[in-house]
Fold this protein.
Amino acid sequence: MNAILRSTDSRLPSPYSCLRTPVSVLLSPYSCLPTPVSRLRTPVYITIFVFMKKALFVLHLLFLLSGLRAQDSSRVLTLLYTNDLHAHLEPQKIGWISQDRLVGGFANISTLVKKEKAANPHTLYVDAGDFFTGPYISSLTKGAAVIDVMNTLSLDAACLGNHEFDHGWQNVPRQMKKARFPVLNGNIFLQKKKNKLLWKQPYRIVTINGIRIGLIGLHGKFAFYDTIADEMIQGVECRDEEVYLKKYIARLQPRTDLLILLVHEGIPGRQSSTGSADVARNLQKDIELAQRVPGIDIMVTGHAHQGTREPLLSNGTLIVSTDALGMELGKLELRYDPRADKIVSYKNQLDYIYDDAVPDDSMTLSAITRWKEKLKIITAEKVCRIPTPLTRSYGEESPMGNMVSDAILDSWPGTDIVFTNSGGFRQDIPAGEVTVGDLISAFPFPNTVVICELKGSDILELLEHGAGLTNGILQMSKGMRMQYNPQKPIGQRVESCSLNGQPIEKDKTYKVASSNFVADGGDGFLAFKRSSQTKRTGVEIVQVMKEYLKKREVYEPVVEGRISVR
């Protein structure tokens, strides 16, 4: 045996000779068959041994290749997202992020989106609504300037938010027709035409990297009626988002691999000079929606102004959002396995956009500059000087709230009390020269002054609602004092309330001024609707602010203990 082996050793093929064979040959079903027995001088059992060695190697190689093929079957997708841009076209100072670096800006977002799409074709960019209302450029053009600038951002879809209705529902289709990106909404209907959508595109389907993606746009019913002035939506109705979400899921599931919901719902964003990080509380409505309606893979949500450094996971749905105002561009990187029909891995990135770290996109910057020049004759008008900033607060007395309340009281001196909602202030005014543009940016709504007659019990109910901080406290005019504790049970949070040193009497009638939005029950201040007599002045609050400040060469912002928190 050993002699035979020695005499034939040099002719035996190596058991690893397949390593030198081209893969195309290896994969042939005959590549490792031995030479016919009649032509071999080597004993048959040696040939069989060699054949088995080669066959085992090929099987191992095929196993490895099949494993690679299985791994390669998963597909990547990058989802870029924003929400609640609120017309902040230019970079801004946000004190709780940085005291010396500007943040955000549409030209910076545009650069980042286009850079990502150029480097990675498997990229989708979406927005979850509220791109209107913020700096003056939106208010003075009823959103037209915002749409024009957004047309340069390479958006793949956006849903409608409540602030798109700030100039009346008729303005929505008028401006959205100018958009060169898909605008989605599937549950806001015309009242006179039973089943006709205000905007006729509830969803769209796109294919990226072989993944069929359904994009659905909806608006939360509660958020719609809670945060839009009644007179702006007379003629349309927002229907239950859960009902329509189920409807669109059933329609799209057979035609898609992934479903992404763009939704504007929940509690309104905190409007103050400080941030908020109570992620789960602020996005509770989104968590509950995912729990009640299975089938959505990703939810990009707006309205709460709540960033998700880590995506929330609810009933298999990934929930993501930014902190609003364009301060971040969210980036969710996914790996989808079509065989398992699920997302097998993901990574989220939510970083602040610092203006000094990102070059402006020239096309976007050009559009912004063009609109600023058009409006300069209005916005550049000087009003007064302020030595310290006019800042906002959601749960405390603020210089901004005091100024606006006192301005209305100054114009209607027969009024006992003026209330302004904290959510109505959208931007601080820095120390220095104050312009008309600053005033419009701080209070960008076309709201007007309304005078109501309310019982003291109604006033206490209004203050109690504000003390819950779901929509922010009511800022108040001079002479008013309130102390509250937001930790106490509902109905006990307002601990004291007085006017000119006298407690508010439940049965006494008071003249109370506010905006038409609040007087119509906006932000949940429903007790205003019990007014025994209501006078609508038609005078815009921004005009009242302008006239009040113009009387003073220098206005000194005040905080004097009108509201105290325990």
